[in-house]
Amino acid sequence: MIMALYFYLHLFTLSFPLVRSFEDKIQYATKWRYLFPAIFITGLFFLIWDVLFTRAGVWGFNEDYLLGLYMFSLPLEEWLFFLTVPFSSVFIYECVLYFVKKEFLGGKGKEIMLGLSVILLVLSIIYSHQAYTFWNFLFTAVFIWIGVFLLKPDNPDRFLLAYIIHLIPFMLVNGVLTGAITEEPIVWYNNEQNLSIRVVTIPIEDTIYAFLLLFMNVSFYEFFKRKKIFSKAG
Predict the structure, then answer these.
(1) Which of 22, 24, 66, 89 is least crowded, fewest Cβ atoms below 10 Å from its Cβ?
(2) What is the largest CA-CA distance in the chain?
């Protein structure tokens, strides 16, 4: 058993994107004034959801792998999750924007996301008796429409590519959290509240959760950049 393993995962998650934030090509650090407000808004939504689901027993945390600091039923490490994961995930998105110049889906990214929202809405109705599945799919379906039609992200094709790429580190970290290398999971799930379909140890719903977390951050991030909100010039 590795004490504070969840905290060490945050250091691992941050390490490469933080070091590369100051290089000349991506220039990620110059965009932080747009990024951190997006992380704050998105994190507020997810933390409220997290607190409610933790208190309802939809998921929970193994104290053996935590520092032991809590706020509103959540360990410190869970609060950090909504900082370190978006920070690193949006870095992947920025790398895709820099290195992939064409819309690799032929400009159909928006249509694909709207189609996904319809599928998720139908599935949320079918599985309305399972809290994680229902709310996860419903929130994602609704926010796709908010993002596409109100916040209007600029690069839906490349966003989808970034999402696919970011699933690799996301699933690696999430695999550790859900017990892939430990005797017991750091984060446990009540299978009565999900589909009980696992990718190794990870609930299948987490892939949609990851989509919503990234898309919400990217949508606000791009909106702030486009409108020059929080820019030095005001």
Answers:
(1) 24
(2) 53
> What's the mean pLDDT in 60-71?
96
Instruction: Give the C-alpha separation, 109 to 223, whole Å.
Output: 18
Tell me, yes or no, whether 75 lies in a domain: yes
CA distance 218 to 39: 9
Q: Quick one: tokens of 189?
A: 């799930």
- Rounded to whole angstroms, the Cα distance separating 184 from 187 reads 9
Q: Is residue 233 part of a domain?
A: no
Is 19 a domain residue? Answer: yes
User: Are 90 and 221 within 8 A, CB to CB?
Assistant: yes
Is residue 232's pLDDT more than 80?
Answer: no
What is the domain count for the chain?
Answer: 1
Angular region, 4: left φ>0, alpha ψ -120 to 50, beta rest:
left
Tokens of 13: 């998650």
Could you tell me if residue 232 is inside a domain? Answer: no
Distance CA 133, CA 155 (A): 28
pTM assigned to the model: 0.95
Domain that holds residue 164: 5-227
Cα distances (Å, whole numbers) of residue 44 to 115, 161, 219: 27, 26, 15
What pLDDT is attached to residue 201?
Answer: 97
Q: What is the pLDDT of residues 152-169, one digit of tens each?
A: 988 999 999 999 999 999
Which residues neighbour 139 within 8 Å (Cβ) at sequence distance 6 or greater? Answer: 49, 212
